[in-house]
Specification:
By secondary structure, the chain is mainly alpha-helical. It has helices at residues 23-34, 37-41, 43-49, 56-81, 85-93, 97-131, 141-149, 163-182, 184-211, 216-224, 234-247, 254-260, 269-301, 313-327, 331-364, 369-388, 393-423, 427-437, 444-472, 479-502; strands spanning 11-13, 532-534. A two-stranded parallel sheet has the order 1-2. The model is unreliable at 1-13 and 526-535 (pLDDT under 50). Residues 526-535 have a biased composition (Basic and acidic residues).
Length: 535
């Protein structure tokens, strides 16, 4: 049946594509994707270790020269070519669509692998939310987390499951599958519109409480006192680009997929700016809350903030913060707020990550939304439990995360920029698409930022990280373990991308015309310029 929607661009045939109910729903969902675990446990430590207040300068430069331009690139690709990453890249590639499709599957497999272990961290946060009420970690949070809770064993592969991890992990997977099966408007959007306001209010309450703790000012001074000499260190600038890049959910299919569900006549760049600056604002808010709390911790121990350990990542969240909660007035409430916000921030990001995979499978094999959600969620849940709910789960998670993020995602961004701008030569067309629909226009400098600045900086990051991992290993772990879980994860991404791109489509994605037309048609009335679009 043909559906004509004169308020939404061209005519569609076949089943209409799912859509966000409006701009607010899209913006909240995109912010929910961007605001995740890394905003809370990564940014504060990275800023502190890379110049304090001075770090905000390279951070802002990175946001404007790489973060926002690549975010716009993802929006333009997804919205113009109306599909998840594999579909969109196939259509973008034109005659070379078949091999461009493999880039889309590379991004989808990255999202798949991230979903396997990201869910586990959310399960940990959910457990510690419950533990906060009776301070179950006791006087030694490190021993509790590593020993009693995770029961960490030696590097290897174990089928000895940890019930305290397994039960919340299964619960998180059930909730995730339900949200994905409900669809974009009734599932993903509804969750974000409910959860994101709760997350923000709870986190603001947490930050305000932290600001009134003894020693909070010392913590803030440690974070924001600028070390201007750090700006001369290239590694500080690389750290800024790395933070922006990883925190905006770009270059592994999320924003391509999310943009594909926007109505055809939709402003793209202004919402993109809202999402980017909202994400950065939350990171700075997280930095204030975390370091005000760390200042209290240092004050209680009679030491300087610079003498504290465990200022980022898993150590900050599940060892340092529980120790702080045990010492502060009203600790159980503060702990519940912290781990509750960590759980909510992680869950909204998780849903976006897995939507990339679910949408790609749904389009490739022409199956229903529910079938795709059950297939992706079911397979992911089984693998997640087998690998990460065991006594070796923490070590495997750390290694897989390191390789997938620092090699997989960065390689994806470099390939996307080079293939889209220089090989497929779609830079001008995508710029035209953004400007034809948006109030905030992008100039030709946008193509330069995406096609030159981004690949050069990210390429340097990629090469230097590969050299470091090969030469120095990682965290003193055995080389064979890094080959299996680190380089093995990259092999899974590459092989998965190749195999999935070779498999036949149940319904051809090539019967499609992008809109608005490019080059733009100027010799006929606009009312007649409504190409037939099959999507």
């Amino acid at each position: 049946m043909t559906r004509t929607d004169r308020t939404d661009g061209p005519t569609h045939t076949a089943a209409p594509r799912e859509q966000w109910t409006g701009q607010v729903g899209f913006i909240l969902s995109a912010i929910g994707s961007a605001v995740g675990l890394g905003n809370i446990w990564r940014f504060p430590g990275v800023a502190y270790e890379n110049g304090g207040g001075a770090f905000l300068i390279p951070y802002l430069v990175a946001l404007l020269t790489a973060g926002i331009p690549i975010l716009f690139l993802d929006y333009a690709i997804g919205h113009r070519f109306r599909g998840a990453a594999p579909t969109a890249f196939r259509r973008l590639g034109g005659r070379a669509g078949r091999w461009m499709e493999s880039l889309g599957w590379f991004q989808a497999t990255i999202a798949f692998v991230i979903g396997l272990y990201y869910t586990v961290v959310i399960a940990w946060a959910l457990s510690f939310f419950v533990f906060s009420f009776d301070l179950r970690w006791g006087d030694d949070p490190a021993a509790f987390f590593v020993g009693e809770y995770l029961q960490v064993g030696d590097p290897g592969f174990s089928f000895e499951f940890v019930p305290s991890v397994l039960i919340p992990l299964v619960l998180v997977w059930v909730l995730t599958i339900i949200v994905l099966a409900a669809g974009i408007a009734k599932g993903v959007q509804r969750v974000n519109m409910i959860v994101l306001p709760i997350l923000i209010v709870a986190f603001v309450v947490l930050v305000v409480r932290a600001l009134f703790l003894d020693g909070a000012a010392d913590g803030l001074n440690a974070l924001f006192t600028p070390n201007w000499a750090a700006l001369a260190d290239p590694n500080v600038w690389i750290a800024a680009y790395s933070q922006i890049f990883f925190s905006l959910s770009i270059a592994f299919g999320i924003m391509i997929t999310y943009a594909s569900y926007r109505r055809r006549r939709s402003n793209l760049t202004t919402p993109g700016l809202v999402v980017a600056f909202s994400n950065s604002s939350f990171e700075i808010l997280a930095g204030i809350g975390v370091f005000a709390t760390l200042g209290f911790f240092a004050f209680e121990q009679g030491i300087g903030v610079d003498e504290l350990e465990g200022l980022t990542g898993v150590g900050l969240s599940f060892i340092t913060f529980p120790a702080i909660v045990s010492q502060m007035p009203g600790g159980p409430i503060f702990g519940a707020l912290f781990f509750g916000t960590l759980t909510l921030a992680g869950f909204t990001s998780l849903v976006s990550v897995l939507q990339v995979v679910s949408a790609a499978i749904q389009e490739k094999f022409a199956i229903s939304r529910r079938a795709a959600a059950l297939a992706v969620g079911g397979v992911s849940a089984v693998l997640s439990v087998l690998v990460f709910a065991t006594t070796t789960g923490l070590l495997a998670l750390d290694v897989v995360d390191q390789w997938t993020n620092n090699i997989g995602i960065v390689a994806s961004a470099v390939l996307t920029s080079i293939l889209v701008i220089w090989v497929a030569r779609r830079g001008r067309e995508l710029r035209y698409h953004l400007n034809a629909l948006s109030t905030f226009k992008v100039g030709s400098v946008w193509v330069v930022l995406v096609g030159v600045v981004g690949p050069v900086i990210l390429g340097y990051m990629l090469v230097s990280r590969i050299i470091t991992l090969i030469a120095e290993g990682y965290e003193g772990l055995p080389p064979w373990y890094l080959v299996v879980f680190g380089w093995g994860a990259i092999l899974v991404l590459v092989v998965g991308a190749i195999v999935l791109s070779i498999l036949p489509w149940r319904r051809s994605p090539d019967d499609f015309e992008s809109w608005p037309p490019y080059p733009p048609v100027t010799d006929e009335p606009s009312a007649t310029r409504r190409p037939e679009v099959r999507s």
